[in-house]
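pinging the channel bc i need a second pair of eyes. not urgent but kinda urgent?? the chain im working w is below, pasted from the shared doc
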Amino acid sequence: MRIVLLSGGSGKRLWPLSNDSRSKQFLKVLENEERTLESMVQRVWRQLAQAGLREASYIATGKSQLDMIYSQLGTDAPVIVEPERRDTFPAIALAATYLYSIVGVGLQEVVAVLPVDPYVEQGFFETIKQLEGHLLDASADLALIGARPTYPSSKYGYLVPGEEASGQVHFQIAHFVEKPQEDDAQALIEQNALWNCGVFAFKLDYLINLLIEKGYPIQYDELLKHYGKLRKISFDYEIVERAKRIIATRYDGDWKDLGTWNTLTEEVADHVIGKGIISEDSVNSHVLNELDIPVTVIGLSNVIVAASPDGILVSEKSSSPRIKEIMQHIEQRPMYEERRWGWYKVLDYSKLAPERYVLTKRICIHSGRNSSYQLHHKRSETWTIISGEGELVLNEKLIQVKAGDVIQIPIRARHSIRAVTDLEFIEVQTGSELVEEDNVRLFMSWEEIAACVV
């Protein structure tokens, strides 16, 4: 069996810590067994390894999240990259063609697709393992997982079992109900309905044949070329609701979607993460602060205060899900990003004159990592090294750098830096357009970069 993890999301529901490049699954707020902080994607990747499933697992994601995945899971994590965001059906279709035509997975092999961010016990992945046998035993088109509801939630979809489901390990699904009102959810629970965990298992030939029927290419390279023409629709609506025979396996352990501040704070490691103070009479309040200034909460209960370079949120917890609606029409560049080499924070962004902008970043490159060898057509840069040591390649010349050094990088100068020890510097960009699209990358690996030094 192969596993495909879907990693998407626009980053609005947990603003300001999440943004378009750092969705909720990348926030390091959960405590692991070593009592260090990890993200949801790191937690699931660790759980897959413990279940013996990691070697068969792939991550389907968009280009904007690629550096974040490499930063948190390592550059050897197998990734299937969407050229643009087009919902879950196109993403799963692309993954299926990748497994079929690039990896060479057999058509009779079972593929299980699951979200990258479920908050579950280890037993959930043992249930994932059982899907293959259940799918084949039942000769079903699709096998899903349903979690035992702990309360009548209006946030989740429900799987309603058929009449003969009682006592069976797996059972046929009669129909689906998407996010009902609480009274209706209670009635569904009384009918033994389960929360839909968003897991789909199928034999690879099932989806490949459906793609053929719909007139889509089944070779990965060809589907990639036509990806923008695929219908922008969820896998549930395009495939699941049209399948003839769908079964579900019951999962009786804890299952949560930590998709809002009020649910996430139920599982975070501490009431204060980062610089902050909460008074003793502030009950069930949380501070998650990524800024270098302290945040203090006095006499306020059941509130979430989240602060990052992208902004500051102060909300009563039960109202916090409204942030997605409030922020949906607000566009801003991410002010904090993790990259495969480290991270950066935007400190200031100013317009000095028509066609003249200044952007200031604080950048950290981890020991042994390097930025790409690149150039810019619309900006120059000034770097001030504030800590650590590194090697700079500037127009094919190798230069040793250390704390206190100032480096000028003119427009169109070819440059890359490698950290010998953890390296931090302030970068001041000046130019007519300061966007990531002005990065012309020539080489990525340090071996390639070092080979061009004269």
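so DSSP finds eleven helices and 30 strands in the chain. and Residues 2-257 form a domain with the Spore Coat Polysaccharide Biosynthesis Protein SpsA; Chain A fold (CATH 3.90.550.10). — does that match what u expected or am i reading it wrong
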